[in-house]
Amino acid sequence: MKKRRGCIFRIKTWEIFEAMVLALLIKSPDHGYSLMERISEFGINSHVLEQGVIYRILRNLEQRGLINSRWETEGSGAAKRIYSVSEEGKVYLRNFVGMEREKVKKLNGIFSRIDTILRKENEN
To answer: Does any domain span residue 61?
Structure first.
């Protein structure tokens, strides 16, 4: 099978998960395990994600300077690494959402045109 080139829209699942994590951290700083549970706020079943995925996302976002972390040692139990969004992370998320929204708008236009063609075909 020939490899396809020239993908117009390039919407990557990994980037969508990064955006969801950033949005959750803007709402309130948190630790990885809790973020796994909170991902359901977006209608995503947290059981679909492997636990390691959220930590890879967090590590990647931190390496890129989009989030910061600190160790929380107060309270009972083991220390927890708490993540929060940096100013760079907020700017990145705004830009990302804007670009992805434009892609979705173009896709909706394409689907609308296809629906029109299908309706006309059904009328014949």
So the answer is: yes
